[in-house]
Write a structure and sequence with these properties.
Elements (H helix, E strand, L loop, with lengths): L7 H6 L16 H11 L6 E2 L5 E5 L2 E13 L12 H14 L9 E6 L6 H22 L7 E7 L17 E7 L50 E4 L5 E4 L1
Parallel strand pairs: 4-5
Antiparallel strand pairs: 1-8, 2-3, 3-6, 4-6, 7-8
Length: 244
């Protein structure tokens, strides 16, 4: 591709490619990073009620995926390999910076590998798992990202982007999707860990106890007016609503 200027849609539309490829390096990635943050950050106060989050079992644990907060990425690998190419490492830089940003660092995401329908289904499944793991390892090894925030899974050819064209390149992709935790995410507190805990001082000699007034009954604990972001609520008809 000779044109080095690509729209976000072009940059993230194609995914895991079996063959090697050469593409122009991204110079200033700030626009790409901001675009990823916008696509992967839930909007505060927004309510999601159009569809039930998808339940998926990842290594024996059931998680819920919010498909409305998801993005497909192009990640280039050598043929039949899970080794990240030089271009793949360069292109994953934008995703790593986005996931490590203040706006996304409180959230958990699933890194999913997909293939097209070429070849043996079992081999495609294993290859997609290895490639998703390779992307996850690269991100947590090269960016300040808590490993617990990134899950990985391989779907093989079971979740084609375009079922009508099962061998199309767009089916070979890495998908990044927001995970909705049971009970929601803790409220954001940017100053929670800003100050280090004070150092312990040596114990002093005990002073005689001072006279105290009779204890008053403790006031009832106030209940929070708002739920934690990402909390799932079910109405009487079984409809699911998620409030961010």
């Amino acid at each position: 591709m000779k044109n080095a200027t690509r729209s976000l849609k072009q940059a993230f539309a194609v995914a895991l490619c079996f063959g090697t490829a050469t593409m122009p390096a991204w110079g200033d990635q700030s626009a790409d990073i901001e675009g990823l943050i916008t696509q992967l950050a839930p909007i505060a106060g927004q309510q999601e009620s159009s569809a039930m989050p998808e339940a998926a079992e990842i290594r024996g644990t059931t998680v819920y995926l919010l498909r409305s907060v998801s993005v497909d990425l192009e990640v280039f690998f050598a043929l039949n390999s899970s080794d990240l190419s030089v271009q793949a490492r360069r292109d994953l830089g934008a995703l790593g910076h986005a996931l490590a940003s203040n706006r996304l660092r409180r959230y958990t995401y699933l890194i999913a590998g997909h293939t097209d329908s070429r070849g043996d289904a079992r081999y495609n499944q294993q290859l997609s798992e290895r490639r998703a793991d390779a992307v996850r390892r690269y991100l947590i090894n090269n960016f300040p990202i808590d490993p617990a925030r990134l899950l990985s899974v391989g779907w093989g050819e079971s979740r084609l982007k375009t079922p009508a064209s099962p061998t199309a390149a767009i089916n070979r992709r890495v998908e990044v999707t927001l995970v909705v935790p049971v009970g929601g995410y803790p409220p954001y507190d940017p100053e929670a860990n800003a100050a280090a805990a004070p150092a312990q001082q040596p114990p002093e000699a005990a002073a005689p106890p001072a006279p105290t007034a009779p204890a008053e009954p403790a006031a009832p604990t106030a209940q929070p007016d708002t739920q934690a972001p990402g909390t799932m609520n079910t109405d009487k008809d079984g409809n699911i609503t998620i409030t961010w």
